[in-house]
Amino acid sequence: MKKILHRSETRGDANHGWLHSKHTFSFANYYDPQRMNFGVLRVLNDDKVSGGMGFGTHPHQNMEIISIPLSGDLEHQDSMGNTTVIKEGDIQVMSAGTGVQHSEYNKNKDEEVRFLQIWVIPHTQNVEPRYDQITLKKEDRKNKLQQVLSPNKEDAGVWIHQDAWFNMVDLDADKAVTYDFNLVSNGLYLFVLEGSVEVADEKLERRDGLGIFETQSITLKASEQASVLLMEVPLRV
């Protein structure tokens, strides 16, 4: 087993006033040649947007873009004709493919919105742009893994153009789960949303990240009540 540890405080920090973003990997003005990606996992941004503010219309191309709201309401509009709101419990995916434009705004003026924006490099270029979102049942991840993303349209969760699987889990203190890799050639990136867990001889705290590879399974145990996002992705870009 091999590991790459990213402590929360080592992430890039971009504070634009209306937007406060923490970058696990190099993004915009934050650049670290040692932290460009974890395989095809290219971007993991932890964003906080002030009330009524947001990202104006901007383009994307040939990227799988996943948004996971943590609190508040995020309003989305795009050039495919979608106008919608995502909130805690939802997961959104947009395959940018040949090109798409979209905007994201905090729907509420009196509270901030917090969300993760994740970019995954696709295995196929120039696909037809596509949008989807679903609402997850939080009780389905209580002390067990809940699949929220995969490469397969018929599976649970949303799907993307990549051999990647995302799971979420909410663990009570001292509870543990084992994750078995779908592809042993893949790597697994764990991101602690809340609480703390022990995995691979490491103790991970809130917003710490850990990449694990060259193994077939891992077990994580909660030191206290915890929520974790697990992202299994190909290591070769």
TrEMBL record:
Signal peptide: none annotated. It comes from the Bacteria. Its cofactor is Fe cation. Residues 148-233 form the Quercetin 2,3-dioxygenase C-terminal cupin domain. Binds 1 Fe cation per subunit. One of its GO terms (molecular function) is metal ion binding. CDD domains: cupin_Yhhw_N. Fe cation binds at H58, H60, H102, E104. Keywords: Iron, Metal-binding. Residues 13-120 form the Pirin N-terminal domain. PANTHER family: QUERCETIN 2,3-DIOXYGENASE. Belongs to the pirin family. This is Pirin family protein. It comes from Leeuwenhoekiella palythoae.
